[in-house]
Write a structure and sequence with these properties.
- By secondary structure, this protein is of the alpha+beta class.
- It has a single domain, classed as Nucleoside Triphosphate Pyrophosphohydrolase (Alpha-Beta Complex), CATH 3.90.79.10.
- About 25% of the residues lie in helices and about 30% in strands.
- It has 5 helices and 9 strands, in the order ββαββββαβββααα.
- A 4-stranded mixed sheet has the order 6-3-8-7, with helices on both faces. A 3-stranded antiparallel sheet has the order 5-4-9. Strands 1-2 form a two-stranded antiparallel sheet.
- It is globular, with a radius of gyration of 16 Å.
- The two termini are about 20 Å apart.
């Protein structure tokens, strides 16, 4: 579509997603235990392993995801292309490719950029508290979004994204994506610009 939006497919959310057992970690990303996804996000959150993926197309545009209205945290906010958690006994690479396929219907090589820890409070009862590994990749495959996970998708040029982020409209972008993009544009700009063929 001309405005960068991607047509949504059909499908359903992953069953019992909140029952997934996630990996608890310390600040050095050493595994220290396991807990359900729901419990990891209760209160101020329990630090757990996560990943955030940024997918670009051949024009160097970034795929943004609008989170489903049914999400417990930051529903209908725009965010990075895909983010999730490795499950207990699941490698990061396996988890990344699983979620790319489940949420976006694609598989593509991903390049590790950096890792960061953050805590973001949604309300008095729920929060994100993650040690998050950030990756980027490029695809020319058609996107087939899972509408149970995603309310909308759109491709955006980095320059347009910078302008939108500068406006800082409340309720527009997730807090982790704002942090990620600022660091990516500062420290990894050549890699972003290299996605343009």
């Amino acid at each position: 579509m001309n405005d960068g939006r991607v047509d949504m497919g059909t499908g359903g959310a992953e069953p019992l997603a909140d029952a997934d057992t996630l990996i608890l970690v310390d600040e050095a990303d050493r595994e220290v235990g396991h807990m359900s996804k729901a419990q990891c996000h209760d209160g101020r959150g329990i630090l757990h392993r996560a990943f955030s993926l940024l997918i670009f197309n051949a024009q160097g545009e970034l795929l943004l995801q609008q989170r489903s209205a049914s999400k417990r945290l930051w529903p209908l906010y725009w965010s990075n292309s895909c983010c999730s958690h490795p499950r207990r006994a699941e490698s990061m690479e396996t988890a990344i490719q699983r979620r790319l396929q489940e949420e976006l219907g694609v598989r593509c090589p991903m390049q590790f950029l950096y890792k960061f820890q953050y805590q973001a409070q949604w309300d008095t009862e729920a929060a994100e508290n993650e040690l998050c590994s950030v990756y980027m990749g490029r695809t020319q495959s058609p996107i087939q979004a899972d509408p149970g996970e995603i309310a909308g998708l759109r491709w955006v040029a980095p320059e347009q994204l910078l302008a939108e982020l500068a406006q800082r409209r409340a309720g527009q972008f997730t807090p982790w994506f704002i942090m990620e993009w600022e660091r990516i544009w500062r420290d990894h700009r050549p890699a972003v610009l290299a996605t343009r063929s």
